[in-house]
Design a protein that fits this description.
- By secondary structure, the protein is of the alpha/beta class.
- Helices cover 35% and strands 20% of the residues.
- The protein contains 17 helices and 22 strands.
- It has helices at 21-29, 63-79, 98-107, 120-128, 159-165, 178-187, 217-224, 241-244, 267-275, 294-298, 314-326, 343-351, 373-382, 399-410, 422-435, 452-460, 473-490, and strands spanning 5-10, 32-35, 52-55, 83-88, 112-115, 141-145, 168-172, 195-200, 208-213, 230-234, 256-259, 279-282, 287-290, 308-311, 338-340, 357-358, 367-371, 388-391, 393-396, 416-419, 446-450, 467-469.
- The strands form five sheets. It has a five-stranded parallel β-sheet with strand order 3-2-4-1-5, with helices on both faces. Strands 6-7-10-8-9 form a five-stranded mixed β-sheet, sandwiched between helices. A five-stranded parallel β-sheet has the order 12-11-20-21-22, sandwiched between helices.
- Helix 13 packs across helix 15 and helix 15 runs parallel beside helix 16.
- The longest helix is centred in the last third of the chain and has 18 residues, at 473-490.
- The radius of gyration is 27 Å and the shape is elongated.
- The protein binds S-adenosyl-L-homocysteine.
- S-adenosyl-L-homocysteine binds at residues 13-14, 38, 88-91, 94-96, 119-120, 124, 172-173, 199, 201-203, 228-231.
- S-adenosyl-L-homocysteine is lined by residues 13-14, 38, 88-91, 94-96, 119-120, 124, 172-173, 199, 201-203, 228-231.
- This is Uroporphyrinogen-III C-methyltransferase.
- Belongs to the precorrin methyltransferase family.
- Pfam families: TP_methylase.
- It comes from Halalkalibacter oceani.
């Protein structure tokens, strides 16, 4: 029997790009992923199509019991010979209970690896423009829990040693006891003007920072309504933020856009938008399953019918040729004229030695539209004369995409949804239907469409569209967001 393997992986603090390559690879190989509340849900899209995902968001009041359940869950799957990833926020060994989990695995002789992650205290301070050490201001830092094991939760710390011995102190899980923490530090020798920074949701686009001093930070944080997850940083280095802040003062800081389409199709836009400070999550909501059977493909051979084969995308060319190969058919026996829906598809056809005409300037006898299901459906709406269809692949929905999509929206990691083509609009609609997610989930988001036809399509399905882009996507986005900001400021 296959031996189980467990990876205890640090997912990093929030920004999805802060997971390690090793962690990402483990995730891509996992058959079971047991994940925490604090991980960025986008990371789940790296899992396999059929990976089993188990959420174990810890509820504060059921701490101990839940940890036992999680450990049981890890054991069950590892014993079945599965590759399990236990995905934890930040670093698994910093207030992440990796010690207990590894101990259990060692006891049961189950092989495991610990994959470090970037811990919130280091990452959130870096994104806030605060270096934990500094040649002039800080020669040491400590990472401390702000939540004790007593019933009251007040931290049990050697305050004297901490106040006197360490220059920069980072508290985790300390928001609830901020007042006590500040009071203890002041009473053991830290001056009341010592700068303090609180960073909530560090490295996420929704990162929030509150600055103050030991004397006033508790009041400021209460006023701002900041809750966990947040870290508290105490020390002179905090003052450097006024000079070094870089993350939260860019043109699109605080914006987070979900694009329901493959990352590789939107690379340029993603790059540009990220440079302006926004977060972008792009992933296809649906995956493809080959559907064309031998009989259908063989039907394309010969030229006994007057008809034209129309390829609807570059991918459809590859998929069709691949299907021919898999069914041991020879494309040279196709004698119908070949058409391409646009110049890039024609180029793809050329690159594999097939000369095609463009669809736009042609009147066809009886086109056979060849493509993936969404492409063919989209064509069906546009082409008003008789046509045949060859659907090469159909879409299906996986648990990982449902989890990622729902959590990104429900946990408010995204505030805008960008749809740039009819195909992606159709995919969104199909995804909602197949997964049983209500279209209302989009209500809290700013829905941005490129092109009037995309807008009309979504609106016909009762999805409200707030903004329309007609030309360049980046220019459009900057326009939309800047105008909105002006309205907010004027209001
Ligand atoms: N293993 C994690 C810490 C888990 S304890 C790590 O290494 O980061 C949970 C606490 O971590 C939260 O209460 C909060 O204090 C801190 N935390 C986790 N993610 C955070 C984030 N993105 N921003 C600010 N604090 C965070």
């Amino acid at each position: 029997m296959k031996r189980g393997m467990v990876y205890l992986v640090g997912a990093g603090p929030g920004d999805a790009e802060l997971i390690s390559l090793k962690g990402k690879r483990a995730l891509q190989q996992a058959e079971v992923v047991i994940f925490d509340r604090l991980i960025n849900p986008f990371l789940l899209t790296y899992a396999k199509e059929d990976a089993k995902l188990i959420y174990c968001g810890k509820q504060p009041c059921r701490h101990t019991l839940r940890q036992e359940d999680i450990q049981k869950e890890i054991l069950i799957h590892a014993r079945k010979g599965k590759t399990v990833v236990r995905l934890k926020g930040g670093d698994p060994a910093v207030f992440g209970r990796v010690g207990e989990e590894a101990e259990l695995l060692a006891e049961h002789h189950i092989p495991y690896e610990i994959v470090p992650g970037i811990t919130a205290g280091i990452a959130a301070t870096a994104y806030a423009g605060v270096p934990l050490t500094h040649r002039v201001h800080s020669d040491s830092f400590a990472v401390v829990t702000g939540h004790g094991s007593k019933k009251s939760g007040t931290p049990e710390i050697n305050w004297q040693a901490l106040s006197k011995g360490v220059k920069t102190i980072v508290f985790y899980m300390g928001i609830k006891h901020l007042k006590t923490i500040a009071a203890e530090l002041m009473s053991r020798g830290k001056v009341s003007e010592t700068p303090v920074l609180v960073v909530q949701w560090g490295t996420y686009s929704k990162q929030r920072t509150i600055e103050g001093t030991l004397a006033n930070i508790a009041r400021k944080v209460a006023q701002a309504g900041v809750t966990n997850p947040a870290i508290i940083v105490v020390g002179e280095v905090v003052a450097l933020r006024s000079k070094l802040a870089w993350y939260d003062n860019r043109r699109l800081s605080g914006r987070s856009i979900l694009i329901p389409g493959p990352e590789k199709k939107h690379l340029k836009l993603i790059d540009q938008v990220k440079q302006q400070g926004a977060d972008v999550f792009a992933f296809p909501l649906l995956t493809e399953r080959a559907t064309a059977d031998r009989h259908q493909l063989a039907g394309l051979l010969g030229s006994n019918k007057p008809r034209e084969l129309v390829f609807l995308s570059a991918e459809s060319v590859q998929l069709c040729l691949q299907a021919f190969g898999e069914h041991k058919l020879d494309f040279r026996h196709v004698h119908s004229p070949i058409y391409a829906v646009d110049p890039s598809v024609r180029q793809t056809l050329r690159s594999v030695g097939i000369q095609a005409e463009l669809l736009e300037d042609s009147r066809l006898e009886l086109p056979v539209f060849i493509g993936k299901e969404a492409e063919v459906e989209s064509m069906r709406h546009q082409y008003e004369r008789p046509a045949e269809e060859l659907i090469l692949t159909k879409q299906q929905v996986s648990q990982k995409n449902i989890e990622a999509f729902q959590r990104l929206i429900r946990e408010q990691h995204v505030n805008a949804l960008l749809i740039t083509s009819r195909v992606e609009a159709m995919q969104l609609l199909t995804f909602l239907t197949l997964s049983g997610i209500e279209a209302e989930i989009c209500n809290g988001l700013q829905l941005i469409c490129k092109g009037k036809d995309v807008k009309l399509l979504l609106e016909s399905q009762k999805i409200a569209v707030q903004s329309l882009i007609e030309g360049d996507e980046l220019v459009g986005l900057l326009d939309i967001f800047d105008i909105e900001e002006r309205i907010v400021m004027e209001g």
